[in-house]
Design goal:
This protein is mainly beta and about 110 residues long. Helices cover about 0% and strands about 55% of the residues. The chain is built from no helices and 11 strands. The strands form 2 sheets. Strands 2, 4, 5, 6, 9, 10 and 11 form a 7-stranded mixed sheet that branches. A 4-stranded antiparallel sheet has the order 1-3-8-7, with no helix packed on it. A hairpin with a 6-residue loop joins strand 4 and strand 5. The protein is globular. The termini are far apart.
């Protein structure tokens, strides 16, 4: 199973980005999927989760600004990030709970 993130980049505060996590070698439809991030000098932290039934859960720091979604037909998960803040600067990783698979990460940089 391989997870490949894309969509990261540089954006000014208040801007938006959409991350994608394309999965191959295994379906995402039956597994909880999630996004995590790691800022420089900090530990990796939870961002958002989507369950196989479609339910979602967010870290308080991103609630109301980020939206996690999935397209099972495309075997891809997304993270729509609005109203980005400099504190959101981090490498974002996608995760498939079933089998504990991680992507390589995509950098998000938010300037003030």
């Amino acid at each position: 199973v391989q997870l490949v993130e894309s969509g990261g980049g540089w954006v000014q505060a208040g801007g938006s980005l959409r991350l994608a996590c394309a999965t191959s070698g295994g379906t995402i439809a039956i597994s909880t999927m999630g996004w995590y991030r790691q800022a420089p000098g900090k530990e990796r932290e939870f961002v958002a989760r989507i369950y196989s039934g479609g339910g979602t859960y967010y870290a308080d720091s991103v609630k109301g600004r980020f939206t996690i979604s999935r397209d099972n037909a495309k075997n891809t998960m997304y993270l729509r990030m609005n109203n980005l803040e400099p504190e959101d600067t981090a490498v974002f990783y996608c995760h498939r709970l079933m089998g504990d698979y991680w992507g390589q990460g995509t950098q998000v940089t938010v300037s003030s």
